[in-house]
């Protein structure tokens, strides 16, 4: 009988241990500042569980040798404490590319060694930077950011009440590996982030719209970019980028189509012959240029046209100078404004009367990205398409990756 009790107690202890190791989460959010307007939460334990399951179900990964840089220290030995929910936030009235995260330092010596291994250098008092990130150390915490511009502007964290509840992960996410929330004074609009075998999907709660047929059709007819947006979607997207263009243009429909082409660009330079006479030298280089058609339907075309002229975006040849690629022509006819590239004109596809943005990967893109590293180019090359869709109250974003023998979480 004693053995049965011992086995029972061991089983109970193992059950509790498994629960706390893989499923229990501290849902308290300590470091979301009061002036955050966008919050991304990553469920670390759910990500770990998904990784372990994927790893166990792909035996070929077990024996795969992966070369590691011996000079780089992993995050597990960084001296940082990674909580159950990583809290990444964006601040009000800042660039959309500026994001921050607060982490706790539990071993200063390890953390200092980690910074050196990741090639961080001093950028002022208690501030460090490398090619991608900035770090500000404040006592037992460090703030990681994509910019150092707003370290001082990060407000005090919510410690007490948010929507009549203590601020915790349940206020922002339910299902999904992660979530992204747009925070206003009245409420937070939450979207789940799911990591699947070869795609990342972001959608709002209670989303019932299936965009798969639209995506399939776009895949067969779109070479690079196609978009249709109504007034509401234009406002939402421009708000994310801190722009108020729609108030000035009064656009109630926007349609875009673009294709990429490789063309010969003529380079004219001057030199001198043996007799010091000036001579003209002509050379050529291949560059990538888009052919595009942009259509705007506006309730007040004169106001939109005057706005463009006040910004000096229209020159004497009726070219829209904001777009630097090749000659174009801007026209105003009744309630419509169109901008067309003129070198290789293209037509708009049929009006689908839907709200979407679809970007299909194109190999010609990489020759344009001179500043990208080889690893960044390799990453972008794995993307098949990016899709944004909206119908009524349903919003969805899909980032589809090319098929691989391993799911995304193992790549």
Classification by helices and strands? alpha+beta
Biggest pleated-sheet summary? 19 strands, antiparallel
End-to-end Cα distance? 50 Å
Strand content: 25-35%
SSE arrangement, N to C: HEHEEEHEEEEEEEHEHHEEHEEEHEE
**Gyration radius, to the nearest Å?**
26 Å
Helix proportion: 10-25%
Tell me, rounded to a whole number, the average pLDDT.
85
Q: List how many beta strands DSSP finds.
A: 19
Question: How many domain regions?
Answer: 2
Q: What are the low-pLDDT stretches, counting only 5+ consecutive residues below 50?
A: none
Count, helices: 8
Q: Which geometry do the CA atoms define? A: globular
Architecture overview:
- The chain is an alpha+beta fold and 411 residues long.
- The chain folds into two domains: 169 residues, no CATH class; 202 residues, no CATH class.
- 21% of the residues lie in helices and 35% in strands.
- The protein is built from eight helices and 19 strands.
- It has a 19-stranded antiparallel sheet that branches.
- The longest helix is centred in the N-terminal third of the chain and has 21 residues.
- The model has no long low-confidence stretch (mean pLDDT 85).
Topology overview:
Blueprint: H1 2-22, E1 36-43, H2 44-56, E2 80-81, E3 85-91, E4 100-105, H3 108-117, E5 121-122, E6 127-129, E7 134-138, E8 141-145, E9 178-183, E10 188-195, E11 199-204, H4 212-221, E12 225-230, H5 231-240, H6 245-249, E13 251-272, E14 278-298, H7 301-310, E15 328-333, E16 336-341, E17 355-360, H8 374-381, E18 383-391, E19 394-401
Antiparallel strand pairs: 1-3, 1-9, 2-4, 3-4, 4-8, 5-6, 6-7, 7-8, 9-10, 10-11, 11-19, 12-13, 12-17, 13-14, 14-16, 15-16, 17-18, 18-19
């Amino acid at each position: 009988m004693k053995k049965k009790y011992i086995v029972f107690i061991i089983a109970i202890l193992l059950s509790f241990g498994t629960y706390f190791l893989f499923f229990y989460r501290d849902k308290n959010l300590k470091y979301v500042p009061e002036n955050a307007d966008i919050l991304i939460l990553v469920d670390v334990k759910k990500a770990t569980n998904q990784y372990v399951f994927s790893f166990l179900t792909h035996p070929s990964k077990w024996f795969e040798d992966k070369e590691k840089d011996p000079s780089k220290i992993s995050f597990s030995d960084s001296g940082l404490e990674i909580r159950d929910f990583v809290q990444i936030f964006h601040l009000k009235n800042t660039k959309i590319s500026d994001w921050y995260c607060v982490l706790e330092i539990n071993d200063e010596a390890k953390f200092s060694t980690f910074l050196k291994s990741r090639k961080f250098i001093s950028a002022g008092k208690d501030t460090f930077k490398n090619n991608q990130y900035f770090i500000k150390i404040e006592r037992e915490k460090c703030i990681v950011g994509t910019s150092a511009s707003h370290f001082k502007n990060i407000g005090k964290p919510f410690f007490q009440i948010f929507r009549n509840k203590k601020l915790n992960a349940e206020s922002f996410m339910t299902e999904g590996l992660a979530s992204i929330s747009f925070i206003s004074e009245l409420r937070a609009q939450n979207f789940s982030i799911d990591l699947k075998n070869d795609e990342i999907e972001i959608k709002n709660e209670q989303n019932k719209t299936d965009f798969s047929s639209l995506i399939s059709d776009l895949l067969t007819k779109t070479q690079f970019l196609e978009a249709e947006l109504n007034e509401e979607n234009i406002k939402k997207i421009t708000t994310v980028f801190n722009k108020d263009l729609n108030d000035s243009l009064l656009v109630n429909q926007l349609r875009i189509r673009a294709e990429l082409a490789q063309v010969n660009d003529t380079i004219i330079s001057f030199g001198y012959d043996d007799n010091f006479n000036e001579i003209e030298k002509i050379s050529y280089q291949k560059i990538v240029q888009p052919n595009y058609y942009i259509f705007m339907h506006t309730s007040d075309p004169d106001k939109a046209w005057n706005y463009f002229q006040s910004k000096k975006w229209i020159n004497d040849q009726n070219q829209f100078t904001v777009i630097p690629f090749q000659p174009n022509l801007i026209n105003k006819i009744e309630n419509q404004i169109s901008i067309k590239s003129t070198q290789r004109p293209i037509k708009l596809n049929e009006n689908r009367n839907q709200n979407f943005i679809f970007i299909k990967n194109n190999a010609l893109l990489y020759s344009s990205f001179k500043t990208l590293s080889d690893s960044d180019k390799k990453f972008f090359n794995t993307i098949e398409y990016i899709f944004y869709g909206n119908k009524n109250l349903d919003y969805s974003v899909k980032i589809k990756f090319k098929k691989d023998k391993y799911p995304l979480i193992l790549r």
